[in-house]
């Protein structure tokens, strides 16, 4: 299989290129470099259409030359196939490429309106992430290559046990250590004052024990050590919960969607979206 990189030099493409390069190298996969030129009007006979096609071809040639050259530097030895598509929709073109090329994963860059180091879904990436039938990686804005080392699976009782196995399999195929974490949020004043802080602590401790127990029960089937490879990370808000993990360069965060159906698609539930928003590392979202 291959790694599909959605590449545009101007729209988060460099981050996607940087992460896609290290992922393809880690997995020993070829790269499908897909560049989309947006057609803003319907094709029609005449000079206008001919001029557009000439401009589109020149734009695609320049973009793909740049992308291939950067990939050769970032991931020497990785085979690259380029694909130029004219379309009225970037997201639609990328999704068509997923269907036709059947990659193991799609790599996108974060939106340009996000802060450096932050994972942000722009409008195009959001549509792709909500419609993809294969895992989608979103690289933080400004991502720079670093050897991959660990995949942290965000898993909870709301997820199917098979999801943890799927994430672990993906991680090991990428040469990564795999761990699993259940993220949780507690809020001061969850109960009326007369209940008391001690009762709140007891409720949270009970939830934490239950969450950890569920993780440990699923860990062996995913090839994880139920004592060493699982944990609960919690805080008063989702940012604090995500920050409770000891993140290091080369880490990835993986999560599943919470909107499965007969057709496998990625659909970010509200909790997954909040966790993604605060992730300091690239995020892999698996179809539900």
Explain what you see.
This protein has 288 residues and is of the alpha/beta class. It has two domains: 2-139, HUPs (Rossmann fold), CATH 3.40.50.620; 150-286, Rossmann fold (3-Layer(aba) Sandwich), CATH 3.40.50.620. 39% of the residues lie in helices and 21% in strands. It is built from eight helices and ten strands. The chain has helices at 13-27, 47-74, 90-101, 123-131, 161-173, 197-218, 238-243, 270-277; strands spanning 2-6, 30-38, 80-87, 105-109, 136-139, 150-154, 177-185, 230-235, 251-256, 283-286. It has a ten-stranded mixed sheet with strand order 3-2-1-4-5-10-9-6-7-8, sandwiched between helices. Strand 6 (150-154), helix 5 and strand 7 form a beta-alpha-beta unit. Helix 1 (13-27) packs across helix 2 and helix 3 packs parallel to helix 4. Mean pLDDT is 85; it is low at 259-264. It comes from Serinibacter arcticus. InterPro entries: Rossmann-like_a/b/a_fold (IPR014729), Universal_stress_UspA (IPR006015), UspA (IPR006016). Residues 2-139, 162-287 form the UspA domain. Pfam families: Usp (PF00582). This is Universal stress protein.
Write a brief caption for the model:
The protein is of the alpha/beta class. Helices cover 39% and strands 21% of the residues. A 10-stranded mixed beta sheet has the order 3-2-1-4-5-10-9-6-7-8, sandwiched between helices.
Top keywords for this entry?
288 residues, alpha/beta, Rossmann fold, 2 domains, ten-stranded mixed β-sheet, 8 helices, 39% helix, elongated
**Spans with pLDDT under 50 lasting ≥5 residues?**
259-264
Structural domain tally? 2
Q: Which band does the percent of strand residues land in?
A: 15-25%
Q: How much helix is in the residues?
A: 25-40%
Report the CATH topology name of the largest domain: Rossmann fold
CATH class of the largest domain reads Alpha Beta
H/E element string?
EHEHEHEHEEHEHEHEHE
What average pLDDT do the residues reach?
85
Structural class: alpha/beta
Helical segment tally?
Answer: 8
| CA-based gyration radius | 21 Å
Shape type: elongated
Regarding quaternary structure, what we see is: single chain
Strand order of the largest sheet: 3-2-1-4-5-10-9-6-7-8
Write down how many β-strands occur, each being a DSSP E stretch of 2 or more residues. Answer: 10
In the CATH hierarchy, what is the superfamily of the largest domain? HUPs
**Distance between the amino and carboxyl termini:** 21 Å
Second CATH tier, the architecture of the largest domain? 3-Layer(aba) Sandwich
Most strands sheet: 10 strands, mixed
